[in-house]
């Protein structure tokens, strides 16, 4: 009887285990995503922070010292004259007395959107519209909290709160497809990664803004159809078009100028900026001195960065720092620069690795703050009271990040307790921080810490998710290294089926992105994501596949030489390294060397095509999603940063073209593209497909109607991932 009972129990367990399987729906909808902490906004007191509630109905204040809830700052259910039942985001004034509540958000591109904002007074619990003139973009409080500037219809507007919310128009020449004031054009937003191009002076008396003249930038048209989810009724009979200015490599960019507006006198001035006529202005920012506006410029080749201090009234500009590079200057100098009353801190790769440099406000270098064969990933801030600088670096391994502080004497203190990936959100006074830690086996653990690194409280441990996945056939992620035939050591990860048998031979699916400065091989939790060692790989493991990812030459975390060696011919060395990866895998006794596939999205899709047509017939199947296929078709800022213009680099563009090597394509290919992709245009897919046809190469293609670069909406993502998984199963087994 005991034997029978045990047998029944064993069968039930086996049936239960077999029933718990990952599905394509889990991939598409991130079923196993980890809990995180979003929208943390440190308060001016340095002791607290606010967050939106999960139901998007409240703003709650928490203590940085304890992590405990202090009070509800805003509630749609109790706020006076509230016209909405939920909101999308919020912006707090410098003194925390006023809050702009963001509603009716409508996204335009990756970072830009319009919204209807309401001004909330914390003291009297009352709401009122910021403006009745239509939706607004990127509203900004003045430092004294008495004014709000915003953009509407390509023009700057100003609301004076001390004068009955009187609204006035600052610029009047804004016009669609011609002049933009205070917000970037498409290519600036996408490649320089910002959505607001204006700032208040420290004394709240001036506004500086960038004016974009895109009248000479060629127009690009994207077709739209009626479609579904959502259905566009106006295109039921005839399709329509979305038109916008998109500068391709080598063609005209917007002409940019910097202006200042005197709020009292209403005088508008143009800075006498000694920059190249075809150069870029990726950032402007007022320093703590109202007479010093920092203007950051790049030449068109992006190998010279200049930092100017401009007087907003005299319009004179003085060069403070010039950064030059034999290849290109990365975003770090202008994205991370921080100004203080007597100093500023900036990043630079001038010694071969990204590090921190301290300057006087007069532009004199005081010292290099960090140094070594590793990179500073993020600069957090300078606690001047303790004279300590906080930063995150990958010292020790390019696979991991750690929080550090360094004092004026160069003494460094490691604050992160756990090895893996760490990020931090600090209080305004740098006394406390919220740390998010994860590694490949540990979902995010979010803790509250003081400036010494001591853990005060654990906010989220994701133990429930870890327990849930422990009951699933989750494959183990393992890191590995190998050396290519050219002598380059590369980092990778591998995920084998949960029931892996070393005596068997398994087909392999390789995932990669490979873009300049990117990293996919990182010691972090990614089980809830679509790729990069997540549920896609777990699902494929159930089907008997090994999944692999390798960061080849040109990727980040290993210094400038490793990253920039692909300059002037991106895609070529990266493809060689993916082929080398496949060759290495063929040498492993448990890999079926005749059944290796490769896939990727965006640059990863491009690299899929480049690797499959590198000339070595090693990939049996590949999937290229939203892939650039020829750099003549891509935007000026990104492409020219790594390739210069087509006129300067004819041979490089030819070598880096997937279309040019289409006759060498080997293996079954699936092309996937959204028809309304504003980033990698459908043109890339159409031209590549035509080249395949004329080269007599058979292939599969999947087009998603009205979908952009993310290819989602309705059932789209599930359909896409079903297509990808079935393609590999059909062609590699």
Give the helices and strands, then pairings.
Elements lengths: L1 H18 L4 H6 L11 E2 L5 E5 L5 E6 L5 E7 L13 E4 L5 E10 L5 E9 L4 E4 L7 E5 L5 E6 L2 E6 L5 E4 L9 E3 L4 H7 L5 E3 L5 E8 L5 E6 L15 E6 L9 E8 L5 E3 L9 E7 L6 E6 L5 E7 L6 E8 L7 H4 L2 E2 L3 E6 L6 E6 L4 E4 L7 E8 L4 E6 L8 E6 L4 E3 L6 E6 L5 E8 L2 E9 L4 E6 L2 H8 L6 E7 L5 E7 L10 E6 L23 H8 L3 E6 L8 H5 L7 H15 L4 E11 L1 H10 L8 E5 L10 H8 L6 H6 L12 E7 L7 H13 L5 E5 L11 H17 L1
Helix pairs in contact: 8-9
Summarize this structure briefly:
Helix 9 links the parallel strand 40 and strand 41.
Any overview of this molecule?
By secondary structure, the protein is of the alpha+beta class. Helix 8 packs across helix 9 (603-612). It starts with a helix and ends with a helix.
Shape: globular
Number of helices: 13
First-last Cα distance = 44 Å
The number of strands is 43
Q: Give the low-confidence spans.
A: 1-18
Strand content: 35-45%
Task: Provide the residue-averaged pLDDT.
Answer: 95
Find the structural class using helix and strand composition.
alpha+beta
The proportion of residues forming helix, as a percent range, comes to 10-25%
Strand order of the largest sheet: 36-37-39-38-40-41-42-43
Rg is 27 Å
Mind summarizing the main beta sheet? Answer: 8 strands, mixed
How would you describe this structure in keywords?
single chain, 733 residues, alpha+beta, eight-stranded mixed sheet, five-stranded antiparallel sheet, 13 helices, 43 strands, 17% helix, disordered N terminus
């Amino acid at each position: 009887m005991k034997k029978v009972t045990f047998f029944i129990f064993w069968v039930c367990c086996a049936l239960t285990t077999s029933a718990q399987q990952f599905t394509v729906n889990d991939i598409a909808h991130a079923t196993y995503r980890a809990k995180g902490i979003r929208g943390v906004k440190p308060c001016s007191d340095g002791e607290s922070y606010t967050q939106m509630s999960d139901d998007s109905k409240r703003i709650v204040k928490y203590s940085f010292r304890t992590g405990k809830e202090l009070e509800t700052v805003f509630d749609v259910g109790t706020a006076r004259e509230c016209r909405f039942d939920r909101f999308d985001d919020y912006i707090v004034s410098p003194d925390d007395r006023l809050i702009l509540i963001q509603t009716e958000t409508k996204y335009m591109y990756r970072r830009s959107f319009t919204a209807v904002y309401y001004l909330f007074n914390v003291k009297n619990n009352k709401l009122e519209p910021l403006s009745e003139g239509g939706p607004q973009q990127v509203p900004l409080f003045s430092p004294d909290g008495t004014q709000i500037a915003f953009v509407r219809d390509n023009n700057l507007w100003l609301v004076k709160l001390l004068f009955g919310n009187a609204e006035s128009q600052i610029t009047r020449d804004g016009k669609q497809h011609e002049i933009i004031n205070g917000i970037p054009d498409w290519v600036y937003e996408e490649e320089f990664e910002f959505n607001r191009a204006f700032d208040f002076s420290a004394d709240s008396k001036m506004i500086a803004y960038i004016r974009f003249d895109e009248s000479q930038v060629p127009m690009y048209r994207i077709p739209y159809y009626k479609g579904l989810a959502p259905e566009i009724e106006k295109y039921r009979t005839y399709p329509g078009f979305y038109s916008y200015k998109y500068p391709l490599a080598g063609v005209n960019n917007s002409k940019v100028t910097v202006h200042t507006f005197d709020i009292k006198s209403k005088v508008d001035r143009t800075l006498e900026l000694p920059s190249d006529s075809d150069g870029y202005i990726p950032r402007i920012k007022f320093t703590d001195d109202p007479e010093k506006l920092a203007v950051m410029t790049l030449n068109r080749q992006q190998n010279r960065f200049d930092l100017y201090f401009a007087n907003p009234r005299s319009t004179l500009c003085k060069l403070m720092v010039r950064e030059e590079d034999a290849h290109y200057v990365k975003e770090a100098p202008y994205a991370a620069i921080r100004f203080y009353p007597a100093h500023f801190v900036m990043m630079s790769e001038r010694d071969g690795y990204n590090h921190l440099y301290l300057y006087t406000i007069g532009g004199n270098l005081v010292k290099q703050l960090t140094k070594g064969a590793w990179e500073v990933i993020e600069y957090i801030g300078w606690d001047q009271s303790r004279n300590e600088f906080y930063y995150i670096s990958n010292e020790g391994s390019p696979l991991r990040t750690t929080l550090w502080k360094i004092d004026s004497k160069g003494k460094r203190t490691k604050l992160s307790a756990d090895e893996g990936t760490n990020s931090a959100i600090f209080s305004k006074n740098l006394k406390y921080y919220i740390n998010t830690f994860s590694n490949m086996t540990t979902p995010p653990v979010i803790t509250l810490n003081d400036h010494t690194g001591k853990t005060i409280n654990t906010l989220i441990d994701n133990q429930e998710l870890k327990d849930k996945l422990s009951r699933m056939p989750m494959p183990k992620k393992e890191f590995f290294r190998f050396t290519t035939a050219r002598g380059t050591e590369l980092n990778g990860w591998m995920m084998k089926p949960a029931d892996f048998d070393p005596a068997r031979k398994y087909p392999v699916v390789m995932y990669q992105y490979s873009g300049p400065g990117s990293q996919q091989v990182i010691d972090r939790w990614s089980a809830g994501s679509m790729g990069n060692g997540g549920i896609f790989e777990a699902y494929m493991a159930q089907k008997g596949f090994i999944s692999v990812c390798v960061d080849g030459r040109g990727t980040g975390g290993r210094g400038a030489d490793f990253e920039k060696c692909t300059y002037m011919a991106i895609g070529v060395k990266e493809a060689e390294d993916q082929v080398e990866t496949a060759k290495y895998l063929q040498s492993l006794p448990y890999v079926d060397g005749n059944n290796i596939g490769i896939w990727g999205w965006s640059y990863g899709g491009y690299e899929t095509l480049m690797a499959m047509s590198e000339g070595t017939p090693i990939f049996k199947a590949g999937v290229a999603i939203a892939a650039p296929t020829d750099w003549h078709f891509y935007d000026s800022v990104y492409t020219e940063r790594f390739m210069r213009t087509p006129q300067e680099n004819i041979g490089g563009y030819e070598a880096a073209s997937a279309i040019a090597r289409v006759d060498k394509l080997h293996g079954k290919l699936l092309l996937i593209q959204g028809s309304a992709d504003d980033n990698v245009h459908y043109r890339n897919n159409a031209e590549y497909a035509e080249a395949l046809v004329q080269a007599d190469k058979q292939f599969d293609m999947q087009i998603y109607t009205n979908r952009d670069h993310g290819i989602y909406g309705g059932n789209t993502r599930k359909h896409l991932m079903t297509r990808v998984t079935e393609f590999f199963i059909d062609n590699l087994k």
